[in-house]
Structures are given as structure tokens and as C-alpha cells.
DNA sequence: ATCAGTTCCTTGCATTGCAAGTAACCAAGG
DNA sequence: CCTTGGTTACTTGCAATGCAAGGAACTGAT
């Protein structure tokens, strides 16, 4: 399934934002949920750079909690800026879906 | 709409393949149709490199026809390899849509 | 002390979208 | 002519993101 990584661009970020909408999660939990939802190859090599990006952009409330098994875990949850980014993503996703539907049903749209 | 170009990655190629499924089209016609379907910012700077990539991969039957207004037009239509690439794209697109639906409806899927 | 497991982060590459610029070809006007 | 402008095609270079691979810090157990 790693054949067309391009299709995932932007999408993975939107989905992680959604997962952090209401719950505080840390890395392993995010990976787990993404995989269960169908992103079966989702990996930490993708997640960590993404989390750092989004944190730098102020999208998160972050909480560090000590772990019995290693370094402290970083728990993430959306800030107001994060929620806004999520909304933007979802709107763009819907537009995109509609455009693709237009192409594949040979209808032209002219709404845009 | 140029805000998140990442979301378009892979998608534009899939859509162009679809447009060339049955008809011979040349650049300006492809741009026109993409725009009408909702990809309103679709541009030649995106299209030409894409066409060359796909042509190199054997995805097209190409026909050059003289133009009264300039250099000969290149008309493109899918080859068998192109059709296969289109099918692959569509399958991946559907998987992706399902996964996103799972994330956004908070359902877990486990089918993948 | 060493080892394995956990958690986090860094580095570097591949791909693609896209802006901007280049080049070839034609017709018509000065 | 030869210049201008429109048409068609291509090139170059940059930005963003996914992801593999490797590394570093912390813990408890051997």
C-alpha cells in the first residue's frame, strides 16, 4: 500500500487533527487508531515530524506525563487554532471529493 | 483554493487519466475540463510535467496534429497501461475515502 | 553494567504541484 | 521583411509532505 504515497498528502494530517479533536492522545495511540481506521501503514516516521510541525503552528495543547517504561509521554489535543485547521481541512476535502466525483461522472460543475 | 496544494497530490493525475480514458485531448482541452469540474486553478505548469511523466511510463497513445495557430498539438489518450494506472488510482481513492470516513465518523474499520 | 523495551526526535530522499520563464511555430501588420 | 502577438509545448527550480532509517534518552530487568 505504499505504492502511491502521494494520495495521502495532506490527508494524514487532517485525520490526525480529527483524532485529537476531543481526546488527549500520545504517539502510540495515534498510530494505533490511524491503522485501525484503514491507514494500515501509518508510521512514526510520518507522525513525529507532523506533530512537531503542528505544535510549532500552535495547533495543540500539549501535556507531558511520566511513563513507567521510558521517557515521558507527550499527549496532544487540539487548540482553537488546531480546530480551525481541522475545519479548513474538512471543507477542502469535501470540495475535492466533489470535483473528483464530477470528473468520474463526466459532469461539469461550474460552481467553482 | 491554492491554499493546500498537498491535498491535490496524486489526485490531479488520476483525474487527467480519467479525462483521457476515451477521448483524444490536447493540453488546452484538458485544462479546460479540469477547471470546469472544480479544479479551478489547474494550470499548464502542472499539466505538462505530468503528461511527460505519464508518457514516459507508457500510459498514452499520442497523436500530433498540425495547428493553424502554432506548433503541432499533441493529443493524448490512454494506452492499456494507462487504463491500468487509472484503475489503480480509482481503487486507492476509494480506499482512502473509506478510511477518512472512518476517522471522521469515529468508526474503526479493521478491514485493512 | 548491560540489555531490551519504550518514547521521542532527526536526517535525508522521493514525489508532485505549481510559478515562472523559455522556445518554436504561425499569421498578420507596419 | 521583420516585428508583434497568440498558440502550443517544454524546462527549471522551489516548497511541502510522506516515510524509511537511524539515533538518543529514559526505564526496569537480567
CATH topology description of chain A: Arc Repressor Mutant, subunit A
Largest interface, and how many residues on either side? Answer: A-B, 41 and 42 residues
- Classified in CATH, the superfamily of chain A is Winged helix-like DNA-binding domain superfamily/Winged helix DNA-binding domain
Strand content of chain A: 5-15%
Structural class of chain A: mainly alpha
The ordered H/E elements of chain A are HHHEEH
Helix content of chain A: 40-55%
| Head-to-tail CA distance between termini of chain A | 33 Å
Poorly predicted regions of chain A are none
The CATH class label of chain A is Mainly Alpha
The appropriate CATH architecture of chain A is: Orthogonal Bundle
Count of individual domains of chain A: 1
The biggest sheet of chain A, with number of strands, parallel, antiparallel or mixed sense and barrel status, is: 2 strands, antiparallel
Q: In which order are the strands of the major sheet of chain A placed?
A: 1-2
* Multimeric state: homodimer
